[in-house]
Design brief:
The chain is of the alpha/beta class and 346 residues long. Helix content is 42%, strand content 17%. A 7-stranded parallel beta sheet has the order 3-2-1-4-5-6-7, with helices on both faces. A 6-stranded parallel beta sheet has the order 10-9-8-11-12-13, sandwiched between helices.
Length: 346
């Protein structure tokens, strides 16, 4: 069976990472898979993994129909709302929809979610990345509920560590932010937290990895005197794992999430996480045990600085992060859930 994974972004981030991981875990199986999305930096990331890439000029029904005629898949695995809606309209094939983030518009009208619910009848199955994403969806129909599964993201820890080792450089950041530079991840808030840490610790050094619509704003902010020589912007990196592994902590200031791959990667590498308490992160981080959670910038800065300065505390949280990751990362159970849905599409 041929399965085409459809995504809406030309950049490599969380959902894109998940799609590549799914394709890699089914590489030696009865399923042949390809990755389809708008062309851009994502092409290099996908092709480096030996995955067939089917480029789109843009994500829309017309372009997707062309890609379907070219690849002739048996199943479409569409990631997030826009790709799922386009897939539902573009073809009569079974569509597996995969929602990677919680809907930030809960409690008010959101056109895209409402349209998504209208096409719910067309989806063979719906995967939700976290319980909150499933429960909080504002236009849930009973027909959608019956064919829904919460599927938490997982990491192949050994493969992750091997990939981190591919980067032979050494990095000396005390803490890093890794992710798309967009409104969801709120990098400007991360810089505010970093500024507070700098005011408390005159030797702290920070790294920011990622690209996105706010990168110019981030670059402008970093020109300010208080950040010079203290914060380094590395831009987009296909493999930021060594940067993450060498850091003392990961800073996350997301407004909303699913089950973020960056947090899973940090835990698997034994890097404590300091984060806002949103959605799937609440299922991963236990405040004071394997990281810290707070909506208060002052608290985030204090905890981040404490981790940077206190090696004994850092080692304690690092060890617990690794243990938590080992318990959560059941690759085989994750693969079996996907295979069962794909098999049901025959």
């Amino acid at each position: 069976m041929k399965i085409m994974h459809v995504l809406q972004s030309p950049f490599f981030s969380g959902a894109e990472n998940v799609a590549c991981q799914i394709i890699e875990m089914f590489r030696d199986s009865e399923y042949e898979m390809a990755y389809c999305s708008p062309d851009g930096p994502i092409r290099e990331a996908v092709e480096k993994r030996g995955i067939r890439f089917i480029p789109l000029a843009a994500i829309n029904v017309r372009n997707l129909r062309k890609a379907i005629r070219c690849y002739k898949p048996d199943i479409i695995h569409a990631h997030d709302r826009k790709a799922s809606i386009c897939a539902a309209i573009a073809c009569g094939l079974p569509v597996v929809s995969h929602i990677h983030v919680n809907n930030p518009h809960v409690g008010r009208f959101d056109a895209k979610s409402w349209i998504y619910s209208l096409f719910g009848y067309r989806f063979k199955h719906i995967f939700w990345v976290s319980k909150s994403a499933f429960v909080d969806f504002p236009y849930m129909r009973e027909s959608m509920r019956k064919k829904s599964t919460v599927l938490y993201n997982v990491i192949d820890i050994e493969k992750l560590k091997r990939r981190a080792a591919e980067d032979e450089q050494s990095y000396s950041f005390d803490a890093v932010m890794v992710g798309r530079l967009n409104d969801q991840k709120d990098p400007i808030r991360a810089l505010r937290v970093i500024k507070k840490v700098i005011s408390m610790n005159d030797s702290a050094r920070f790294g920011i990895v990622g690209a996105g619509p706010l990168e110019n704003q981030v670059a402008e902010e970093l020109k300010k005197e208080e950040y010079k020589s203290r914060v380094r912007y590395l831009g987009y990196m296909d493999n930021p794992l060594k940067v993450l592994r060498d850091a003392k902590a990961l800073l996350m200031t997301s407004r909303f999430e699913g089950t973020p791959m960056t947090v899973l990667e940090a835990m698997a590498l034994g890097v404590p996480v300091v984060s806002t308490p949103v959605d799937g992160i609440l299922d991963l981080i236990r405040d004071g045990e394997n990281g810290y959670l707070s909506n208060d910038d002052d608290v985030l800065a204090e905890k981040l600085n404490e981790l940077i300065k206190n090696s004994e505390l850092r080692e304690k949280l690092s060890a617990q992060s690794g243990r938590t990751a080992e318990k959560l990362m059941d690759i085989w159970a994750y693969k079996e859930k996907l295979a069962a849905v794909y098999s049901g599409c025959r």
